[in-house]
Amino acid sequence: MSSIQLTRTASDKSLSPTEQQAKIDDVRKLIGPVADKLPVLCSEASILRFLRARNWNTKKASKMLKETLKWRLQHKPEAIRWVRILFHYVAQEAETGKIYRANFGDKLGRPVLVMRPGLQNTNSQTGQIKYLVYCIENAIMNMVQDQEQMVWLVDFQGWKMGSISVKVTRETANILQDHYPERLGMGILYNPPKIFESFWMIVKPFLEPRTYKKMKFLYSNDPNSMKVVEEIFDLDTLDVAFGGRNAAGFNYEAYAKQMKEDDIKRLNSLGSGCLSESSQQQSTDLDHGSNASDDVRLSPSEAPTAPNSKCVDEKTTKGVSLNCKDIQVAEASVAKQVQ
Fold first, then answer.
1. Who's near 204: CB < 8 A, 6+ residues apart?
2. To 5 degrees, how large is the angle CA 60–CA 5–CA 10?
3. CB 80 within 8 Å of CB 134
4. 153-175 pLDDT, tens per residue?
5. Architecture of the structural domain at 98-249
6. Residue 51 pLDDT more than 80?
7. Residue 43 Cα to chain centre, angstroms
């Protein structure tokens, strides 16, 4: 029995719920035993998103899903925290409000990520991408029941060609499309300047047709654009910067407090954020546990290293060995500070 209700949508073409379930079952077989070991990432809802992203081609969808599982095992997006927990932290990236989860959603209940590339405050491309992933993960965690998508609301005030690199833009598109398929419901580009047209022509090829079709160019001096804004958002809750009546704006201190609280919620739901020693076997299953003709393998440099203790993510810095227990202690200390 399916754990979710399978229904037809505009993107599902003519597939019936029974046909959709058959596709899900096929992907599970192609992925192999790892599907049972990672139930959240390999849930029916998750598999459906990958199937839709690949037009219901089961081989392509399973290949895409396996690559995402490996990406998560390697980069551990669930381990990124707001405050410094040994290594993965993003608070500095957020100081100007260049990306944040808004305190309002759209009329469909989708969470909104406000993006202001003109407020870029760091030069670290790795840090910028890490913060983007943190924000995506946070938006997903805060989705209401039965909601799977978010809205990106991009404010171009203060934007110039040097605000964001083509490399970061390409990586953003790749991460969104390859590892968070069908998570973007709509991308609104609000008041892009004339000079953005040349930048757009450079980055447009990075977008898959499904993503490109979700992008809307809206302008505050265009009555038709503002009608679209009113159709999508409740103007009483929408930020005044986008034509709404909510003057609260971004407050770093208040947002930092909310993110710390959200990190604790995520910690409680996912555990310590460390990978157990079974992760090594899960990575092996991804390489060997499915149809050999559809194998997606890690190169030796990408493969996870064998664990020396109960945690794959054990690290050493300045001669001090840091393992899962150290991270748990550090996170527990942060939890006490927030409470």
1. 212
2. 60
3. yes
4. 999 999 988 888 899 999 999 99
5. 3-Layer(aba) Sandwich (3.40)
6. yes
7. 17
